Amino acid sequence: MVKLRLDPEDELMHPLEEAENFNESMYFNFYDPSTKLGGFVRLGNRPNEGKAEMTTCLFLPDGRAAFMFNRPQIDNNDAFDAGGMRFEVVEPFKELKVAYKGGVLLLDDPLEMAHPRKAFTSNPIAQCEIALTYKGISPMFGGEPVADDGSQLDLEGHEDAFARGHYEQHVAAVGQVTVGDDSWDVSGFGLRDHSWGPRYWQAPWWYRWLTANFDDDFGFMISIIAGRDGSKRIGGMFLVDGEYHNVNNAEITTDWKGEDYFHDRITAKAETGSETYEVTGEVMTLIPLRNRRTDDEGNELMTRIGEGMTRWTCNGRTGYGLSEYLDQVIDGRPVGLGEA
Q: Measured between alpha carbons, how far is 182 from 323 in angstroms, rounded to an integer?
């Protein structure tokens, strides 16, 4: 029998595992409706590969994006502190601090990131500073699967893994963001996650990850993860007055835009134990990111991750969050096209 374990100590760094593709990462997003500024940051440690993955992405009020990705060198898993980004746990499950200081690429058209080399050579770099305090406004969702006796499970075939442990939480974000000569005081809401264990971005065939905050009393996360064999894992939760209600079933329909098939409008229907929610989303700004890896047979694998700053409507209320669409790309087409 398998159950989920989650302790306050899981907010801290986990022991480095032997798998070459061991990853430990934290992710934070936010949106401030008063300034119309949103974005996300992520730092993933891959010490057995000698590097980290650092991502800073801001969706600016005028429709531009400020973006930076880097693979700074690391040789341990002692802290989240690389590439100008640092995460600090002040009090587990209750308060964390996020800081970034470094350059960002200023994109008048964020879709240019579909071709990163060209985007980085044809757009200016500005200095950026992020200082945000995140406070939990919800319970924790997720954990690490363990056996009934609490012992750790073996991850066989770790080359196909995406995480050993993973949890999420709705949060409030307060602080300041500066890009070039512009500065904003931030007071908004978002969602954060923490993952650890072997990871390849090519493990899922495709997934849809929808996050939203409407206020401190209502939000959601809806997730559909598809495998190469056609299987689907559906999950998520709705935050209602400080409590999580787990999603038992969900359907997502997407309207796509352009020749590159970027998600544009989203309709979702999600069922919890007591309610059925209908959600519509309109992508305000989208930036396409990618991950490439060469497999053991020398084949280049391409994964596209579309990050959409999204305006959500549910139960007559308007909220904001991210819609993240991951697809493996085959012959130039995302594999989840037409699926969800």
A: 26
